[in-house]
Amino acid sequence: MLSRFFSSSQPFHYLVGILLLGPTSILLLWLLNGDWQWSYAIIGLILPFALLLVQFIILKNELTGQNSYGLFAYTMLTLSVIVGIVEWKLAVCLLLFLLALRRLMSLKTGTSTIRKIFDGTFWISIATLLEPYMAIYFLAVFTAIFLFDRTKWRHWAIPIIAVVCVIVISFTLEIFLEQPILTRIFYRSEYGFNGLLKEWNPSDLLAWFLCATAVIGFVIYIIKLVDIQQRVRPRFSVLVIAGVCSLILALVGDAHFVLLLIPVISIFQVRALEHIYHRGFREFIFLLPALLIVLALLTQG
């Protein structure tokens, strides 16, 4: 069974994922769109780093067991989603989001708290300059502060300082480069409501499926909250809040934000796999992300 091959964490698994999200994704975008764009190369360079970050977050925070199921799920789901996404900015936002999530979840150690809060807020602030809707993830920052260390008032002030630093840096660059960097977040054109709820489109079938899967995962998380180890529970809470933010953006802001929902869905799938003992059903759930690539190709075609 293929799931047994990924039941441990081996360097070869990482190599397969990097090759699929790097060269393969570039080739896939090129073939499907018919012409070459440099944004394909940017996406192909960013996605492997995002994969490594996701796997690091999973293993470091003990969100799943010591296996590569999450690596496989994330790789397959990402390949299925990028079939319809050619926006390099969204890939950069995904990377920045994961960098922020890594720092926020590491607050569990209780060391370098101020630096971690600053870093997490800083990355989200940078992402907001690229996609103003990314500002919703500040909710994840304050959730992490509340869950991990809410007793010191200066921890609540650090995000504001980080945002001010980004504002000063971006405004300075805007003056010297004479390009809209900070001021573009005030453009009305940056806030179009093109989410899944706007209108039904057959090409959005995959995104709807992923959003529905996320909602089911959120409900199960709430029901099974007491079964999650107490020391891991706050990390899952931060993850779920970030997932809810991604879900809102996909439904209301832009359907392509479903890309930022994939890390959460991947972790939910692995948690499900670890509690399924029927071999046939377990194998089906494991292979489902790969089958979704076929669905993505059919709906885009």
What would you say this structure looks like, in words?
With 301 residues, the chain is mainly alpha-helical. The chain has one domain (2-300). The protein is built from twelve helices and no strands. It has helices at residues 2-5, 11-33, 38-60, 69-82, 88-105, 113-130, 138-148, 153-177, 205-223, 233-253, 262-273, 279-300. Helix 3 (38-60) packs parallel to helix 5 and helix 4 (69-82) packs antiparallel against helix 11 (262-273). The longest helix is centred in the middle third of the chain and has 25 residues, at 153-177. The protein is globular, with a radius of gyration of 19 Å. The chain starts with a helix and ends with a helix. The mean pLDDT is 88.
Which tags fit this structure?
globular; mainly alpha; transmembrane; membrane; transmembrane helix; 301 residues
Q: What does the main sheet amount to?
A: none
Give the overall pLDDT as a whole number: 88
Strand content: under 5%
Number of domains: 1
| Low-pLDDT ranges | none
DSSP summary: helix tally: 12
- Backbone shape: globular
Question: Gyration radius, to the nearest Å?
Answer: 19 Å
The overall strand count is 0
User: What structural category arises from helix and sheet content?
Assistant: mainly alpha
Order of helices and strands: HHHHHHHHHHHH
Distance between the termini: 31 Å
Please give the share of residues in helix: 55-70%
